[in-house]
Amino acid sequence: MPGVGAATAQIMIVGEAPGANEDLQGHPFVGAAGKLLDNLLAKIGLGRQDVFVTNVLKCRPPMNRDPMPNEAEACLPYLRRQFAIVRPAAVLILGRHALERMLPGVGSISRVHGQIFMRSDVAFMPCYHPAAALHNGALLADLERDFERVREYLDRLFPQPEPEPEPAPAAAAEPASPSEQLPLI
Ligand code: URA
Predict the structure, then answer these.
(1) pLDDT of 56-85, one tens digit each?
(2) Residues of the domain holding 19
(3) Closest ligand 1 atom to the C-alpha of 55?
(4) How many domains does the chain contain in total?
(5) Is residue 164 part of a domain?
(6) CATH code for the domain of 21
(7) Contact criterion met (CB below 8 Å) for 94 and 109
(8) What is the rounded distance in angstroms from the CA atom of residue 62 to the CA atom of residue 19?
(9) Pocket test for ligand 1, best of 16, 27, 35 (most atoms within 8 A of CB)
(10) Is the CB of 19 under 6 A from ligand 1?
(11) Predicted TM-score (pTM) of this structure
(12) CB neighbour list of residue 159: distance below 8 Å, 6 or more residues apart
């Protein structure tokens, strides 16, 4: 399951590995963790159309066990190539396995989640994995705060244009002379 999203997406989301549902459907994050991911994205005004979603591992590990280091190594060239094609401005790293592969040595997910690591002008933002928050509800508030940080960063990076001021109400205009009237047909 390689990943899904627009090659022009500014945001890349990298999880751990496809699960059973993802393998069957060929889409990342389609199970319960995927629903939570969609909710978290919606809360910060984003949808799947705005992001490219993939995983460190491109295949489901047997019995859904944790990825082995050699499996992640084997898939990394694929992820690097995806990264080079999409060229995202921000990368959300979901969970400790993706963190260990993408930002080795920065610290544990419980210590660095919600922080921004700039690498070659790209913001790497580790967050708890949505599945972790499904297992341990106490992490949900942290995860929501991590996503709010992502929103704040995106707002700084892509400031919304100021809304156009409302036009002043037009003074009651004189009826146009016949020569100024626009023909309807
Ligand atoms: N968990 C992941 O890390 N990736 C998926 O695609 C689904 C669940």
Answers:
(1) 999 988 888 888 999 999 999 999 999 999
(2) 11-157
(3) 4
(4) 1
(5) no
(6) 3.40.470.10
(7) no
(8) 10
(9) 16
(10) yes
(11) 0.86
(12) none
Residue 175 belongs to some domain of the structure: no
Q: Residue 33: CB within 6 Å of ligand 1?
A: yes
| Ligand 1 site-directed mutation target among 12, 21, 22, 52, most atoms within 8 Å of CB | 22
Rounded to the nearest angstrom, the distance between the alpha carbon of 147 and the centre of ligand 1 is 17
Torsion of CA 60, 64, 65, 69, to 10 degrees: 10
Give the pLDDT confidence of 124-160 residue by residue, as tens digits: 999 999 999 999 999 999 999 999 999 999 999 988 7
Residue bearing tokens 């210590």: 111
In a domain, 149, yes or no: yes
Give domain status of residue 162, yes or no.
Answer: no
